[in-house]
Specification:
The chain has 246 residues and is α/β, with parallel strands linked by helices. The chain has helices spanning 4-18, 30-41, 59-71, 103-106, 118-133, 155-167, 170-173, 189-198, 223-234; strands spanning 20-25, 44-52, 75-80, 137-139, 179-181. It has one domain (19-234): 3-Layer(aba) Sandwich (Rossmann fold), CATH 3.40.50. Strands 3-2-1-4-5 form a five-stranded parallel beta sheet, sandwiched between helices. α3 links the parallel β2 and β3 (75-80).
C-alpha cells in the first residue's frame, strides 16, 4: 500500500530530477540581485533566502521581495534571526555608519559595519535549506575586490565553508558535492553592474545603502553607496535609485 510519506518521497525525487535547484542568498542589494540573475541564467530553479537579522533598516528586505518577484524565483523565504541580541556592528545599531571615506580608507582594515560571523550564519542556514531540497548549489554575492575589508567575503573563507559543508551533511556523506558558488568573487563593481544589466536586473528595485531611510532612499555617502556609485560611474550610466543627497 502506498503511504502519504512514500508518495511525497517519490514526488520530491522526481521534482529534483527534473530541475537543477539552487539556494541563493538574497539581501535585496545590488550584488545579491546580480547573483540571483546569474543563477537563473545558468538554468537553476532558484530558492531565495533573505534574513531579517536585526539590521537597522528593513528597506532592503522589501527590495529582496521585489527582486524575487521580478526575477521569478521558485520560492522566497525571509527568515527572522536576531543577531542584534549580540550586537557588535554599526549595521545592528552599535555605533555610527562610516561616511565619506576614501577608496583607500574603505579598503583598509575591518570596518564597524562588519557583522560578527554573519556570512557563516547565513551560509549555515542556506546549507540546511539546500540539504532539505536536495540542492547541491548555494549562491552568495561575496566579492574579494570591492569587499570593504570583510573577512567572511574572502575566497579562503568560502573554500573552508564548502569543505565543512561536504563533511558535515548527510548528502555530502552520501557522495554528493556541495558547491558554494561565488560568481562575483573576482569582479569589480563596474563588472558586476554590467553583468546584471546584460541579464535584465532592474537595479532601481535594489537597496544597497547601509543607512537607507524607511522609504528606501540611499544616503549617498556610506561605503556601500560610494562603491555602488563608483561602479555606475565607471559604466558611464547613472545609478537609477534615489538618493537623499548628492
Amino acid at each position: 500500500m502506498q503511504t502519504p510519506q512514500s508518495k511525497l518521497g517519490r514526488m520530491m525525487e522526481t521534482d529534483t530530477m527534473e530541475e537543477r535547484r539552487a539556494v541563493v542568498l538574497l539581501s535585496g542589494g545590488l550584488d545579491s540581485s546580480t547573483v540571483l540573475a546569474i543563477a537563473k541564467s545558468q538554468g537553476f530553479s532558484v530558492f531565495a533566502l533573505s534574513f531579517d537579522y536585526g539590521q537597522s533598516h528593513k528597506a532592503e528586505l522589501r527590495a529582496a521581495s521585489r527582486i524575487a518577484g521580478n526575477l521569478g524565483v521558485r520560492r522566497h523565504i525571509t527568515l527572522k534571526i536576531d543577531l542584534g541580541t549580540f550586537g557588535g556592528s554599526a549595521l545592528l545599531g552599535n555605533g555610527a555608519i562610516p561616511k565619506h571615506r576614501s577608496a583607500g580608507e574603505i579598503g583598509e582594515g575591518i570596518p564597524i559595519t562588519y557583522v560578527p560571523a554573519r556570512n557563516t550564519v547565513f551560509l549555515s542556514l542556506a546549507l540546511a535549506w539546500a540539504e532539505s531540497l536536495h540542492a547541491t548549489n548555494i549562491f552568495i554575492g561575496v566579492n574579494a575586490l570591492d569587499y570593504s575589508g570583510y573577512p567572511d567575503c574572502r575566497p579562503e573563507f568560502i573554500h573552508a565553508f564548502e569543505e565543512m559543508a561536504n563533511l558535515g551533511t548527510k548528502i555530502g556523506a552520501e557522495g554528493a558535492t556541495i558547491q558554494i558558488q561565488t560568481p562575483l568573487i573576482s569582479m569589480t563593481k563596474a563588472e558586476i553592474i554590467r553583468t546584471g544589466l546584460e541579464l535584465g536586473v532592474d537595479y532601481s528595485a535594489t537597496v544597497t545603502c547601509y543607512d537607507a531611510s524607511d522609504d528606501g532612499l540611499a544616503c549617498g555617502s556610506c561605503d556601500a553607496c560610494l562603491l555602488r556609485l563608483k561602479g555606475f560611474a565607471e559604466n558611464s550610466i547613472p545609478d537609477p535609485v534615489e538618493y537623499r543627497k548628492a
